[in-house]
Every structure is written in structure tokens, then in C-alpha cells.
């Protein structure tokens, strides 16, 4: 794979511009912001007046497909989180309920002891 500099140096008037080329530009753009601006300027300098439009079309298509592929994963992950937090919330509720039950039993015992002491 060509480095960023090699990719920019490889831009020539007679070169074939395809989807893969624009995806390589996008790949560098992800790690190096504004790289696409440099590459598009270089392409326009050698006569490719539609470089910006081709780039944006390619990136839009890629991102649409990427989002479409990730959507089921996101849905699955949300369900897993809901299960995890649901179990945790139920566990906390049960623990709180046990604490309340235990407190109620202690209170009843104290009331019983107080009643016995008062009756003496």
C-alpha cells in the first residue's frame, strides 16, 4: 500500500481514477484530517475537475453500506446491554426487597420486645 506521500506523488493526468483510489484517499482522511483536501486539489491540478464529486459519491456510498452492515450489530449490542442492565436492576431490586424484608422483621421483633417490656 502506498504511503500518503506516494499516493499524492502518483497523481498524474493519465491515471485511472476508480472507486478503490478514492477509498484509499478516504482511508488516509480518517487518520489524517484534511488529506482528502490535499488529494482532491492535486487531482484538480492535473485536470480532474470532477474529483471532489467522485470522492464524495464514493465516500457516501461506502458509509451507507458500512452503516447498513453495522445496524444489525448495533441492535444486537443494545439488546445485550438491556439484558445485562435488566438483570442488574432486577438483582438490585431483589437485594433491596431482601433488605426491606429484613428491616421489617427486625422492626417487628423490636415492637414485640417493647410490648413484652411494657407488659411487665
* Average of pLDDT: 84
How much of the sequence lies in strands comes to under 5%
Unreliable stretches covering 5 or more consecutive residues: none
Terminal Cα span? 94 Å
What is the β-strand count? 0
Radius of gyration: 33 Å
Q: What percentage of residues falls in helices of 4 or more residues? A: over 70%
The class by helix and strand makeup works out as mainly alpha
Coarse morphology: rod-shaped
Biggest sheet details: none
Total of helices = 4
Q: Into how many domains do the coordinates divide? A: 1
Order of helices and strands: HHHH
Provide a descriptive summary of the structure in words.
With 120 residues, the chain is an all-alpha fold. The chain has one domain. It has four helices and no strands. The protein has helices spanning 4-9, 19-31, 35-45, 51-119. The chain is rod-shaped.
Amino acid at each position: 500500500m502506498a504511503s500518503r506521500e506516494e499516493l499524492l506523488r502518483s497523481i498524474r493526468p493519465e491515471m485511472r481514477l476508480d472507486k478503490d483510489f478514492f477509498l484509499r484517499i478516504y482511508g488516509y482522511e480518517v487518520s489524517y484530517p484534511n488529506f482528502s483536501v490535499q488529494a482532491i486539489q492535486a487531482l484538480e491540478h492535473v485536470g480532474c475537475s470532477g474529483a471532489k464529486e467522485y470522492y464524495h459519491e464514493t465516500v457516501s456510498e461506502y458509509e451507507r453500506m458500512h452503516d447498513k452492515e453495522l445496524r444489525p450489530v448495533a441492535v444486537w449490542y443494545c439488546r445485550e446491554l438491556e439484558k445485562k442492565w435488566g438483570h442488574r436492576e432486577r438483582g438490585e431490586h431483589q437485594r433491596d426487597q431482601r433488605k426491606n424484608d429484613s428491616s421489617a422483621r427486625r422492626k417487628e421483633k423490636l415492637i414485640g420486645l417493647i410490648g413484652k417490656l411494657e407488659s411487665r
